[in-house]
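Appendix B: a complete holo record

For completeness, this appendix reproduces one full record from the ligand-bound portion of the collection. The bound molecule is adenosine-5'-triphosphate. The inputs are the chain sequence and the ligand SMILES; the output is the full three-dimensional arrangement of the complex, encoded as structure tokens. No fields have been trimmed.
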Amino acid sequence: MTEAPKHLLIVDDEAALRGAIAERLVDHGFVVEQAASGEEALERLAAFAFDVLITDLRLPGIDGRQVLDAAVERYPDLIAIVITGFGTVKDAVEAIKQGASDFITKPFQFDALMHVLGSAMEQRRLRTENAYLRSQLEQRYRFDGIIGRSAPMRELFQLLETVAATSSTVLITGETGTGKELAARAIHHNSPRRNNRFVALNCSAIPETLLEAELFGHVRGAFTGAVANRQGRLEQAHRGTLFLDEVGTMSPGLQVKLLRVLQEREFERVGDSHTVKIDVRVLAATHSDLSRMVAEGTFREDLFYRLNVIPVQLPPLRDRREDIPLLVQHFLERLGTEAGRPPVTVSQEALRRLMAYPWPGNVRQLENAVERALAFSKGRAQLEITDLAPEIQNQPAAAESLDPWFPDEGIDFDRYVEAVELSLIRRSLERTQGNKRQAARLLNLKRTTLIEKLKRLESPPPPKA
Ligand SMILES: Nc1ncnc2c1ncn2[C@@H]1O[C@H](COP(=O)(O)OP(=O)(O)OP(=O)(O)O)[C@@H](O)[C@H]1O
Ligand SMILES: [Mg+2]
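The structure of the chain with adenosine-5'-triphosphate bound, as generated:
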């Protein structure tokens, strides 16, 4: 593929020099326009998006610096080369600060100009290519706002893409904060129904007695307070998607009615005998183990099978720690931009702690942790370990527990040892289901020592003076 010719504007008040350069640039395949003054240059720049600007800094009237200013402001991707007088290095430096790609000092050979121009263009090409690669990477590691690069997440993206194309009912399961709602929205937005509504109903957030009317709607007088006819969420989602969140909390009576909707795609509003036909795709989510609820008799088996046509499981964050750096980056960008802050990064040490923490609240908890750290960082350009919540700070990074990481500047010995103590105590308590006497025995400690240590370790460290 041959590249399109580059459009170049050369600005110089010395007509002979300008003309000579222009001619040779044309020989090199550029499409060249000339301007004899700053005023003329501004006019041309306003009218046309040049790829390259070559301008003398010293011009009568509007000078080269103003031309440069106008050009880089309007076209951030423009390559600008300035021509400076002999012995005016300061001007050149200023011009570079102002956004020029490079400079060349008068008098110069044409070949020298070509060399400067060639390397500026090469640099620009690499930069664009890098930006392209980065955007590619970003594309690969996200699916409609869901971030992840770990194997389970990449499998999930594929599954979501496949599922989105169908109209099948999907049951999304996962611990709290793993992104169930995000996944549901992603399915809808990538489905043929995307131009119709996505209606969400959280079954656990609405009192049992109101849930039925909320789902199916009601007619006037159906119950006390039903002063008018009202559409339910099902009807609102017609031709679109209905997302039933926390579906495991539905009462047995409502489970029967939902089953009918899934089987017959019809229902009646509360207090009405008229049957409404509906075209809706149902996505359901739950953090509870529905198959166990079926075994225990608290969830209908037939409804479970109707919902679980395609199961989508969101893995807990602790099982995909390699996603944490990318997620942290993502939240920093989003929250930082919202707060109007320049780009914030995270220190490697803080990142290690974030990757070691078990995240019982999963991605939502991580998002909150980043927000907190950002607030504590008070405008610094990098998040440090001390910006993290105490329970995350105290999490010894996984690889450190046996082979302590020892930085050149040394380590806070007491704090480190305390973190190890806390981690061991926690583990033994987990193993003994919280029984302190047994936990103490596992650690070869007196029970009172364990309790005393626990109390001391779990209280937040005193604020620094
Ligand atoms: N993989 C991810 N990439 C980016 N953001 C995510 C990801 N997973 C979750 N989040 C974010 O975490 C928060 C929680 O996600 P969401 O509400 O979808 O979780 P959930 O599983 O529905 O939680 P709950 O069970 O508590 O309702 C949201 O702010 C969401 O944007
Ligand atoms: Mg949710």
